[in-house]
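Obj.: predict assembly geometry.
Materials: sequence records (below).
Method: joint structure prediction, all chains together.
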Amino acid sequence: MQALSDVDLTIKKGEFVSFIGPSGCGKTTFLRVIADLEKPTSGTISINGMTPEQARQARAYGYVFQAAALYPWRTIERNIALPLEIMGISGVDQKARIKRTMELVNLSGFEKKFPWQLSGGMQQRASIARALAFDADLLLMDEPFGALDEIVRDHLNEQLLELWKRTNKTICFVTHSIPEAVYLSTRIVVMSPRPGRVTDVIESTLPHERPLDIRESPEFLAIAARVRDGLRAGHSYD
Amino acid sequence: MSGLKLSWQAGLALLFCVAAAIMLPLAGAAAPYSGGTTALIFVLVAGAALASALPVPNLISAAILFVGAHGAAWLLIAGITGNEGTARTSFFLLIIAGWLLAWRCVTVLSVLRPVDRLANTLLRLLIPVIFGAWILILWEAITRGAGIPFVLLPPPSAIGVRLANSLPILWADVNQTIFKSVVAGYILGCGAGFATAILADRVPFLRRGLLPIGNMVSALPIIGVAPILVMWFGFDWPSKAAVVVVMTFFPMLVNTVAGLAASGHMERDLMRTYASSYWQTLFKLRLPAAAPFIFNALKINSTLAMIGAIVAEFFGTPVVGMGFRISTEVGRMNIDMVWAEIAVAALAGSVFYGAIALVERAVTFWHPSVRGG
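Observations (raw structure tokens):
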């Protein structure tokens, strides 16, 4: 079965690109192809001049999944240390990186807790810290806040923007929430299903500084309306 | 009246008391119970049953029930000594009344919630101890009261005496069977099962070839394999260890293979995004995730190993070992010695199992079944 066809996209360094579309439009598949978790049947993908396989071997990206996927037998700090251990980073350096990334996601003080002692939002923040710990320039996020409630989600969106500004990473973010996509992104890729394809690419005109109430501004609503139009146009079943 | 704590156990015990009084005497023929003793037994049972309804703290009513139930049982069993088989219905009614009081006692104890940790631990030990003691008391009272033939079922007191008098022999048997056959076979069998599981996981064609063969080995009847292994490895403990290896290999293999598949897709994808090697993924993700399965196999194997080593000794052994002792003492009608060996085997098996369960709790503390939620 074909999940995706005719996708042509260039993502610049430091961008925050959201992929939005109904389920089955191949947005997660696209992210997994970039991450070399799935092989494309045709076409080429280049990440800083490397193939996805090379990029994975070079640990060029951090991946945040739909669930936190923390290991329950490791404390939060040992979970964040997991990629560092695998990549053979020294103990002293590990400690410094754990401290820094835990501060970055506001989890300081929870180093010795086990994942199951934390709330869902905190677990997802820990998993973001884990993806940041080894300083990959690219962050791939697959509906990371999909399972969380609206209030926690708003809060984490704000923190994610803050984090993106401070770390200057390139972020590819998969979501099916229109406000989330518009609020976070510098560019929004609207996708449609059967077969998965890109129907619209929207450059955000919102300023870099984005308080939560920007979501009531006419500019924001205009972009949201365009995303909604793109989604509707792509729906083949109505 | 308010505050009375009525219970069906105490009520039924009183009823049994009345019935026992109607059907006196306690035992036939030689009349081993004096009038005073008989009266004391009735006072203990009926008194405890009545006192348990009084509105006093739970701890005090539990103490009264404890004294009443065990005092009566002690007097009844002590009285029947030398007059085995002469007990009448009245004797058994009173024993059952005592048992009901002990039941009530445990019920009262199990609702207690002491704040002190030491008291809590003691209470958690006391409840199963009373429960176990009453199995022995009923066993003792029935075998002696009804005069059950010794070769059919000896009373626990006779088994206890035999056990205490045969400690050196029992120790030599334990040393031969458990510290040599079981331990060596268990370590080799579990180790080989584990190593084979890893090998089958690493090499796909082995997975298809080895698992069916492992399955077949586990289906071999132990009674058929044991004499052959005795011929191969000699009469001493190595042949018994070989039987244990055959018995413990497969549960470990199957459980480890299942455990290695237990880690989630997302967790494995995560390792892939780190470009983690096969061995890194194995040690950091798949083996920890498999730990609950591996411990299951270790626990199953602890009992299988005991059975295997004891049964294997039936097919030729030097003149020491638990299986050897059981098979020869049965032939000599020394049933109490057989029971003493069974008791030792049960004790050793429980300690073995308990030790593994403790390690399991420490290692898989993170698993929902251990942390409770």
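Conclusions so far: Residues 143 and 189 of chain A are 14 Å apart (CA to CA).
To do: check interface contacts against the pulldown list.
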